[in-house]
Structures are given as C-alpha cells and as structure tokens.
Specification:
Layout lengths: L3 H14 L10 H22 L16 H13 L6 H15 L2 H10 L4 H15 L1 H12 L4 H24 L11
Length: about 180
C-alpha cells in the first residue's frame, strides 16, 4: 500500500515550499500549480483518512518521521541562502523532499511484497524526481544557474530510488512478481 506518512510529508513539503503563495505573485500558472500541489496533497490525506481508512494499517506504516523532520529542519537553519523564514522553509522543504520516500520504502520493506499499482506509483514518483536532472542541465546552460541545495538534495533523492528502479526493472518489467530482497 501507500504510506500515509510519506503522503503527509509531501503535504508538509508543498505547504512550506509554497508559503510565498500568500504574499508573492508570480503568474496565474505559478499560482494555480502551487495551489494544485498543496490541495491535491491535502486531498490525498483526506481520502486516506476517511474514504480508505479501512485499508490503512498503522502497524505497518511505522517509520518515525521525526528522524526526517529534525535533521531537515536543522540543515535548513545551517545551509540556506538567506536566513529569512520563507527561505528557511523553502530549504527545509527541499531537504525533506529528498528523504520523504523513506516511510514508503520502510513500509514496503516490512511487507516484502508490493502491489503492482504501488510499484507504478513509486516509479512515477522516481521518474518525476529523475527529471530534475534535465532541468538542472537546462538551467546551467541556458540561465547559467546552479542551485547547490536543490542539486545536492536531488542527488540524494535520486540515489534512494536507484535500488527500487533496479528491482522494479528486473522483476516487474520481466513479468515476475515484485518482491523486495531480504
């Protein structure tokens, strides 16, 4: 299944990253997309809490997210661009996003087997994060911009997905049942 804790972390990530939505106007597209990310994440939590509550097993989704929240916040206080609340929250969201998949991976490790829909969800999430690489390359060559915080966190994040991608490719795409190695 899907980890409620990972989904809650993503809702927190989008709320802290897009806090500027309240006081900074960029464009209609920017506003709509930020609102979409926040509202869809909160809606997923709502659905998991009420509509699909019987399918959620808290005894399996046991990763302690404090181990992610604390270090992410601590790093955002030390390594940021400006020591302002919005920048610290943005940096916090970047660091937290790099490890937000841990509760999901921990839950999958506990169960051993993974439903096909869950593997597709994780593959899509991993692909979304892997697409950061072309964005960084584009921004480097076209805008002469390198964001060391985003690049470092993105590389950590992509590294966490590599094992999943390898197992997913060798098992699921070859018609075998997806099981995590012991």
């Amino acid at each position: 299944g899907i980890s409620f804790k990972t989904q809650a972390l993503y809702a927190l990530i989008f709320m802290t990253r897009y806090i500027d939505l309240l006081f900074r106007w960029v464009s209609v597209y920017n506003f709509v997309m930020k609102l979409f990310f926040i509202s869809s994440s909160c809606h997923i939590l709502y659905i998991m809490t009420y509509r699909f509550r019987p399918t959620h097993d808290p005894s399996i989704d046991t990763f302690k997210i404090e181990y992610l929240l604390g270090p992410s916040f601590f790093l955002s206080l030390i390594f940021n661009y400006t020591f302002e609340p919005t920048d610290i929250l943005w940096t916090f969201s970047i660091y937290l996003e790099s490890v937000a998949i841990f509760p999901q991976l921990f839950m999958l490790q506990r169960t051993g087997e993974v439903e096909t829909i869950t593997t597709h969800y994780l593959a899509a999430l991993g692909l979304y994060h892997a697409l950061y690489l072309p964005n960084w390359i584009y921004r480097y060559f076209m805008e002469d911009v390198v964001d060391p915080i985003a690049v470092t966190a993105g590389l950590v994040q992509t590294g966490l997905y590599l094992d999943f991608f390898y197992v997913n490719f060798t098992k699921v795409l070859h018609g075998q049942k997806f099981e995590l190695p012991a």
